[in-house]
Amino acid sequence: MKLSVIGCGYLGAVHAAAMASIGHDVVGIDVDQHKIDTLSQGKAPFFEPGLQEILTAGIESGKLRFTTDMAEAQGSKVHFVGVGTPQQKDGYAADLTYVNAAVEGLLPYLSEGDLVAGKSTVPVGTAADLAKKVTTTGATLVWNPEFLREGWAVQDTIDPDRLVAGIPAGAEGERAADILREIYYPSIDKGTPFIVTDYATAELVKVSANAFLATKISFINAMAEIAEATGADVTQLADAIGHDDRIGRKFLGAGIGFGGGCLPKDIRAFSARAEELGRGESVAFLREMDEINMRRRERAVQLVVEGLGGQVYEKKITVLGAAFKPHSDDIRDSPALDVAVRLHGLGAKVTVTDPAAIENAQRVHPQLGYVLDRDEALTGADAVIVVTEWDEYRRQLSPEHAASLTAGTVIVDGRNCLDAAAWRAAGWTYYGMGRP
Ligand code: UDX
Asked: What pathway is it annotated to (predicted)?
């Protein structure tokens, strides 16, 4: 099927390449000329496992192309909108400028019977507003949220847990759902649930899923705070409660908390939207989740200070990690960098290393020191803190080897990802998050 994808960021670029990889004829459109040039050369503009391969294959097969010209959307049967909805500069609400501009820009090129399929994460009610504009052209709006995780984006797009389609009532909606089924047939054939809802439900599925995940992480981080007050070990606690199927072990990793381009801004935008709807109290707990999450970053800083005897001024501290999570070069709202910046603010000499995110980090926080090579970064450190659980630090760094490089032996495990006993046995003073 002929498809257009408006917006070629994390969501759109992956969606465009993934749709081409399952046989569709795709044009990706973005206003950023540099991004379009990079993608047109078959190069991934960001680090995402598997993306490079499907981009190159798509471009070589002629099934995938990129342009800045919205007019090239004309003739596509379905137009996916996957532009960003960042947090507003002066508040918590989502900034819908890009979504509105994308849909407005598309209107002149829509034909009778086309679908516009919204994928961006938007405040509930947005689809109904956009539908008013889209229907003036004879096209139909559907809401088809995206649940991809960075680092797994290609797999999550080609083979998602579930597909959700928010459609208008009546025959027009049924026809729209059938077109989406046709697009996603390889995954539906394999048994992926295809859930058809109204617009509001589809929009809410996305934000409530993210709110639930954020709540799960903050819950275990709250338990980490209680563990710290009692001498309990939150990692054992998480294992034990996670054996209950109803709770589940996933997303119970206590540490410096969640970050990235989605969870923090999405729970804030959800709170702001709920307030507008007069239902602020229904999600008041999300503010608390946000606060618990942010407190854990400060706790990690405190542990470094404690480990170094009360002050870090002029101390050499190696920060292992910059990305908001492993397998990503994304530093948007990265707890790892926030911890590094806070330590720098206390006068420490901070050296940050990361296998993928150094360039991005350097651009945004040029005041910190950066070294690509892990061992060079560790050399001479008074204290070390792990803030992104890359395998390079979690599995491939032996405590004995680390100790042979550093000046001091204080290790703060901001992600509870190290073998505490092994580090202690090698002579380190080990601090975990919510662990004795
Ligand atoms: C998230 C959702 O998982 C995805 O479904 C949605 O489409 C977009 O938002 P992503 O932002 O890629 O995806 O990252 P995710 O893997 O969810 O991790 C988010 C943050 O939570 C990271 O900073 C991670 O380190 C942190 N996290 C995750 C924890 O602190 N503990 C955990 O147990 C799990």
From this structure: Nucleotide-sugar biosynthesis; UDP-alpha-D-glucuronate biosynthesis; UDP-alpha-D-glucuronate from UDP-alpha-D-glucose: step 1/1
- pLDDT computed for residue 434 by the predictor: 98
Distances (CA, A) of 288 to 92, 218, 271: 14, 9, 11
Task: Tell me the per-residue pLDDT of 396-430, one tens digit each, with 9 for 90 and over.
Answer: 999 999 999 999 999 999 999 999 999 999 999 99
CA of 265 to the centre of ligand 1 (A): 12
Predicted confidence (pLDDT) per residue in 239-271, tens digit: 999 999 999 999 999 999 999 999 999 999 999
ipTM of the complex: 0.97
- Is 30 marked as binding a ligand? yes
The CATH number fitting domain 2-197, selected from 2.60.40.420, 3.40.50.720, 2.40.110.10, 3.30.70.420? 3.40.50.720
| Any atom of ligand 1 within 6 Å of the Cβ of 217 | yes
pTM over 0.80: yes
| Ligand 1 pocket member 12 (CB < 6 A) | no
Q: How far is CA 338 from CA 166, 211, 333, 389, in A?
A: 37, 22, 8, 15
Is residue 77 within 8 Å of residue 114, measured between CB atoms?
Answer: yes
Say how many Å lie between the CA of residue 84 and the centre of ligand 1: 17
198-436 to CATH, choices 3.40.50.10490, 3.30.420.40, 3.40.1010.10, 3.40.50.720: 3.40.50.720
